[in-house]
Amino acid sequence: MIGGLGPLELTILIGLFFILFGAERLPKMANALGRSKGEFQKGLNDTSRTIIDLEADGRTPSQQLAQRARDVGLDPSGMGVEELEKKISALESMDSSSEE
């Protein structure tokens, strides 16, 4: 039972839909409903990405990495991402161990 509807009630509802909308329009309506659901899901994903962007102050990951490098006193120009990440991690761990 779906939502308190038995098999007889579902059969009657499906029959009414066929009578009201016709056999040609029902698949089109189902297709449109599926597309609408997909667009809604995309909108939800975009919203979560927007929240992440707002938390990052609108900066890209590479800009955030460059800012972290500057914060620890490192010039990020001319370095690869992996190398920069290693150096920042090493400097941050040195800073945190010296504070203790």
Concise overview:
By secondary structure, this protein is mainly α. The protein has helices at 7-55, 61-71, 81-99. It has one domain (16-99).
* C-alpha Rg (nearest Å): 28 Å
| Count of individual domains | 1
Total beta strands: 0
- Kindly name the structural category: mainly alpha
The major sheet is characterized as: none
| Binned strand content | under 5%
**Global geometry:** rod-shaped
Average pLDDT level? 82
List unreliable stretches of 5+ residues. none
The helix content is over 70%
Count the DSSP helices: 3
Q: How far apart are the termini?
A: 64 Å
- Secondary-structure element order, N to C: HHH
List keywords for this structure.
single chain, 100 residues, mainly alpha, 79% helix, rod-shaped
Description:
The protein is mainly alpha-helical. It has one domain (16-99). The protein is 79% helix and 0% strand. The chain contains 3 helices and no strands. Helix 2 (61-71) packs across helix 3 (81-99). The mean pLDDT is 82.
What topology does this entry show?
Blueprint: H1 7-55, H2 61-71, H3 81-99
